């Protein structure tokens, strides 16, 4: 992420190249993520067109152009991959990439391009174009009224190590009530504006402080060193226009980009690739010093660069030089599925439950009503037809928490079972009726006298005596 030195370079580019130029037109791309704070791309373009750039200011990682006339100022933040590019020059890269070129225009992923015309008293005399670029759309553009420092987001920032660095006494007082890790505190933009991941790691390496050290455990000397390096590191980077290849050779920044590779392996890799343009594991141009093979400890031996996670950020440190104070234990981070995973899940569930108490209490009455809802017309009709009115009507709707498909299957199954039972009862009843009817018909029908069966039956019945007297 571009940090204070890179943002200062962008601010300086605008002030040195565009001051006194009039914005004659703005090509702003529609992007509801980049344009924020109630500002859309059309409003942004309309409000700054026709005004002259009078300067460019910065606090922390936020910077803005000051313009002539009435209206708001364009306030910018680079996010992770934002850049400023003047036509004909390279963009203000964080770390130079080989694909970045001064010849491609308009640049890929631009969010706005300002077409500028020189005015009387302007720095140059030829037309210029200025672009804001952001490939990952994590930057922000908005319009803010003057004075910008009195409005969010700038008003919520802490001290700027370059613009208004506190005295040692003031700095010590700011740390009194802090209880987090030292890296987490100095990266908090409400504490020190502009300090990002690499600046924090460099500050702590130069101050010889472990990034995970709790603030209360810092010694008086630690606080002095931290106070000094918080200003010294950004000043040094700005002095070389934030060109990482010109940073001091003993800076951790020059060696930190071969993440996951030990220095011995990296040295062997470097020897094999001599004469070739080096590209590090992050995809950027290698910034290691050409006259050194490794980051040296004070005794000249290779330093061990270790990567840990502090405050959710990947953190580089040198174990031999950045040690925890005596008595302070670092709790190892266990990856997913470790013994702490269950506890973390329980804690998260507990927090979620406490957040949802009000919502659940508001919904309790609704859920109760749901469970007691009357049957639908279709269910009543089915119940009456199938003779299962007592079976279904007596039940409350307890299946509301089931998936809808499951509820339908449950109801269909219940109705089907009841129908099967009904059909069975009907069959039994019909069978019984047929049996009784058949028996009755058989009793009422006279037997055939001429047959042997008829004679036997006639002899056994009361009427047989009368029939026997009839002459054949």
From TrEMBL:
It catalyses: Hydrolysis of DNA containing ring-opened 7-methylguanine residues, releasing 2,6-diamino-4-hydroxy-5-(N-methyl)formamidopyrimidine. Residues 461-472 have a biased composition (Polar residues). Keywords: DNA damage, DNA repair, DNA-binding, Glycosidase, Hydrolase, Lyase, Multifunctional enzyme. Residues 2-139 form the Formamidopyrimidine-DNA glycosylase catalytic domain. The keyword NAD does not apply. One of its GO terms (biological process) is base-excision repair. InterPro entries: FPG_cat, FPG_N, H2TH_FPG, Ribosomal_uS13-like_H2TH. Belongs to the FPG family. This is Formamidopyrimidine-DNA glycosylase.
